[in-house]
Structures are given as C-alpha cells and as structure tokens.
C-alpha cells in the first residue's frame, strides 16, 4: 500500500522539522517535486541551531537564526511519530493518526555531545527548549544573556 494518488502523485513524509528536514522540504518544493508532509514535534518555527549559542549570548537577534518559511505547497503538521510500519508504508503519530507515504525521510537530528560541566544537568530543560521562554530584556540591560543547557535564563553579572 502506498500513498500515491493518481491526481497528485507520490508523497514524501519527512520526520523531523529541524534544519535538515526543513531544507529538504524547501528543495523538493523548489524543484516542483512530489507532495511533502513535514512532521515535527516542536511547537515553534524552525531555526538555525548552529547560531543558537550566538543568539543566547546576545550577539544576534533571534530573527537572524530563523529559517525561511516553508513554501505553501508543503504540508506541515506538529506531531510526534511513534511507530513506522515499512511493510504498509505508514507512520503513526502520537495522536493515533496513521500517515501513508511513498518515500520516508528520517531527519530527526542528533544528540549533542555535552562536556562534563558543573551544573549542566541540574534540570530537564536544554538551551534549545528555552528558546521561546527567555523573558524580554529589560530597558537599559547591557549585559549579554548567559545560558547553559541547564541554567535558568539570567544575565551575566
């Protein structure tokens, strides 16, 4: 069983809405490729994770790290994929929905290698997860923000 529809052609499902999945979807759309569904667990729009440290340090604004919006023909859904059935060519999401595909791309990223720094694992949030949780800077605040993957948002003394 495939997701090919004679009216719309084959379907590619991309699991992972980070930089790689986002870029692949953009490239497929630019080439007039098949239908693309991007499944991403994250709530916020994708951003350049390479620039995250620079944004957190205050060298760049968050807008600099934002990736270009996806073209309109790319379908994007916030969902966590919990099962893949290669025989039926389907992925199941955490909401129970099954999605058919002709081609499946796993672009889920990787786990960073973290140095053994004191306080690094004091809580469950990472710097990436704090991206949308940083309070707005106070007027006249001049020191850059400091963040470790486990430290609360704060400014340098």
Structure description:
The chain has helices spanning 19-30, 52-56, 62-65; strands at residues 11-15, 35-40, 74-78, 81-85, 90-93, 98-100, 103-106, 145-146, 154-155. A 4-stranded parallel sheet has the order 3-2-1-7, with helices on one face. The protein has a 3-stranded antiparallel sheet with strand order 4-5-6, with no helix packed on it. By secondary structure, the chain is of the alpha/beta class. The radius of gyration is 19 Å and the shape is globular.
| Integer average pLDDT | 76
Could you describe the largest sheet, including whether it forms a barrel? Answer: 4 strands, parallel
Count helical runs.
3
The number of strands is: 9
Terminal CA distance reads 60 Å
Kindly name the structural category.
alpha/beta
Uncertain segments of ≥5 residues (pLDDT<50)?
130-157
Order of helices and strands: EHEHHEEEEEEE
CA-based shape? globular
Approximate strand percentage: 15-25%
- Largest sheet strand order: 3-2-1-7
Q: What Rg, in angstroms, do the CA atoms define?
A: 19 Å
What fraction, in percent, of the residue positions are helical? 10-25%
Quaternary state reads single chain
Note the main attributes of this structure.
three-stranded antiparallel beta sheet; globular; disordered C terminus; alpha/beta; 157 residues; 13% helix; four-stranded parallel beta sheet
Write the layout of secondary structure elements.
Blueprint: E1 11-15, H1 19-30, E2 35-40, H2 52-56, H3 62-65, E3 74-78, E4 81-85, E5 90-93, E6 98-100, E7 103-106, E8 145-146, E9 154-155
Parallel strand pairs: 1-2, 1-7, 2-3
Antiparallel strand pairs: 4-5, 5-6, 8-9
């Amino acid at each position: 069983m495939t997701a090919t529809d004679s009216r719309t052609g084959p379907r590619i499902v991309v699991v992972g809405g980070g930089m790689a999945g986002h870029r692949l979807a953009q490239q497929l759309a630019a080439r007039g490729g098949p239908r693309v569904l991007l499944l991403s667990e994250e709530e916020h729009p994708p951003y350049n994770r390479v620039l995250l440290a620079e944004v957190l340090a205050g060298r760049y604004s968050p807008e600099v790290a934002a990736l270009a919006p996806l073209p309109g023909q790319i379908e994007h859904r916030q969902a966590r994929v919990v099962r893949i059935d290669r025989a039926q060519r389907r992925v199941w999401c955490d909401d129970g929905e099954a999605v058919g595909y002709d081609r499946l791309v796993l672009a889920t990223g990787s786990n960073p290698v973290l140095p053994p720094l004191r306080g690094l694992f004091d809580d469950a949030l990472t710097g990436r997860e704090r991206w949308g949780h940083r309070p707005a800077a106070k007027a006249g605040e001049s020191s850059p923000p400091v963040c470790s993957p486990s430290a609360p948002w704060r400014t340098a003394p």
